[in-house]
Design goal:
The protein has five helices and no strands.
C-alpha cells in the first residue's frame, strides 16, 4: 500500500467505513420498502466499485478516510435491499 498507514490510521479507516455502513441502514430500509430492490442493489454496487477505484489512487490518508466513509455509505444500501 503506497500510503503505508499506521495501525491507528487503519483503525480510523475501518471505523469510518462501518460508521457509514451503520448510518445508512435505517434510511436504506425505508427506501427499499418504496422502490425496486434490484435497482437499489445495482446502483449501490456500481457506486461502490467506482469509489473503490478512488481508494486505490488516493494520495494521502485524509482522502482515504473520506473514501472509506463513502464506501460504507454505498455498501450499507445492499443489506436492507437484499432482505426484502
Amino acid at each position: 500500500m503506497p500510503l503505508k498507514p499506521t495501525i491507528t490510521q487503519d483503525g480510523h479507516i475501518f471505523a469510518l467505513y462501518f460508521f457509514g455502513y451503520v448510518a445508512v441502514q435505517i434510511p436504506a430500509g425505508f427506501v427499499s420498502d418504496r422502490f425496486d430492490c434490484g435497482k437499489i442493489i445495482s446502483l449501490s454496487l456500481i457506486l461502490l466499485s467506482i469509489i473503490t477505484f478512488f481508494s486505490g489512487v488516493a494520495t494521502n490518508i485524509y482522502q482515504e478516510y473520506v473514501i472509506s466513509l463513502l464506501m460504507g455509505f454505498c455498501a450499507g444500501w445492499i443489506y436492507p435491499a437484499s432482505l426484502k
